[in-house]
């Protein structure tokens, strides 16, 4: 039996994001009033949960999805919108840990994840403003050699030719900031409005007959013979299997599994619309950008030419009080020309970071409970892939799910007590390192 405490660890950021203002909520009319009986119950209305429901429903399973708040309330509706290929770590590092052939399988799955999202957008005509190109920008001298190594390694070992190197003057042409020493463009990656994608996919699952219960937090999950019972504040869902897709908001729902990741809060602001001309004076080709520091800055322009700028992390159970000035400071450092523009929205979200930065997939309760979390800030495409692999697993084919579930993950020792202090010390250390290197 698993149960969840009354509240989330991170529950207090109710500020409206730019994304929420750009699309109506799903506002599902489905109501869980007593007991529902389905093949599969999915917990969590972010992209992992919605993609699981979509793929399972396509395979003929009856599915009900419970979301504690609103569809897209978690990271899926709040993120930086960077739809990146690959994993959070570079392939070379993954090869060292897992061996080349396993690393290559993960790379191929990473390519598939972005291609799947593009296909879903096309097939279902989801208007979420997909734009090509993500640029990494170098803050440190050592990054230049690392970029060159990455281009060479990926070309030789993966036939990947979508990288382009930018030297100091070239990157200055592309990104109008004095901060960067070079750049690495990845033309295999994209950016988009993530909440429009999430709600767009949620509409499809509803149309296909999946019951979507919003404002329905799950309190307990019980094993009952060869079935499971999912207990919510409104009613009970009886199912053959349950998918837990709560990522950074998991808390104690899966007991000690919460020690496999550190929940961290990350913050974003959206400026007033700046107009296409000004936007392109700042980012010439409308790429999304992220830098090479440990606590990264990441940014891009929205569909209505607002600068969406993310950066700054906290690890306490509460969000910072004034996230706007927190992020504004970082943005003004990169783009002094934006210091006086109006900030229309500021918000935060919680993500799940694993120690090795790879996602954690697995099964519990004699394979009746499947979970996936820990995308470590690189989950926009991987969460959609996770749903597909979960559906394959529950349909009797665990071959590709295993590429993730076979990865071992360290627990944080005495995690419930130490995970936040440990991470806070790490952040201080890396902040100091970023400072020394800058
Ligand atoms: C600020 C920020 C910026 C990011 N930027 C990027 C980016 O640019 N690119 C990228 O690839 N990734 C990014 N990420 C990470 C990415 O957003 C996540 O990896 C991905 O969205 C995870 O999706 P998910 O469905 O697993 O989790 P979530 O979207 O967090 O969904 C989990 C859901 O579970 C619900 N839930 C929790 N407990 C319960 C319960 N007991 N009962 C019912 N429901 C419950 C929550 O309410 C939540 O809606 C970012 C994350 C954040 C926070």
Whole-number mean pLDDT: 92
State the name of the first-level CATH class of the largest domain.
Answer: Alpha Beta
Total number of strands:
18
Question: Which CATH architecture of the largest domain would you pick?
Answer: 3-Layer(bba) Sandwich
Given the C-alpha coordinates, what overall shape results?
globular
Q: What this model shows, in words?
A:
With 438 residues, this protein is of the alpha+beta class. It folds into 2 domains: 2-78 and 196-260 and 356-427, FAD/NAD(P)-binding domain; 131-191 and 263-353, 2-Layer Sandwich (D-Amino Acid Oxidase, Chain A, domain 2). It has helices at residues 18-22, 47-58, 91-98, 100-123, 141-158, 168-174, 194-207, 276-282, 323-334, 380-394, 402-405, 415-437; strands at 2-3, 35-43, 63-66, 82-83, 131-137, 163-166, 183-191, 211-213, 218-224, 227-232, 236-244, 262-271, 288-291, 297-301, 307-314, 343-353, 360-364, 369-373. The strands form 2 sheets. Strands 1, 2, 3, 8, 9, 10, 11, 17 and 18 form a 9-stranded mixed beta sheet that branches. Strands 4, 5, 6, 7, 12, 13, 14, 15 and 16 form a 9-stranded mixed beta sheet that branches. Strand 14 (297-301) and strand 15 form a beta hairpin. Helix 2 (47-58) packs parallel to helix 7 (194-207) and helix 4 (100-123) crosses helix 10 (380-394). The radius of gyration is 21 Å and the shape is globular. 50% of the residues are buried. The mean pLDDT is 92. Flavin-adenine dinucleotide binds next to helix 2, strand 12, strand 16 and helix 10. Residues 4, 43-49, 66-69, 73-76, 78-82, 84, 217-218, 245-249, 253, 266, 268, 298, 310, 349-351, 375, 377-380, 383 line the site of flavin-adenine dinucleotide (FAD).
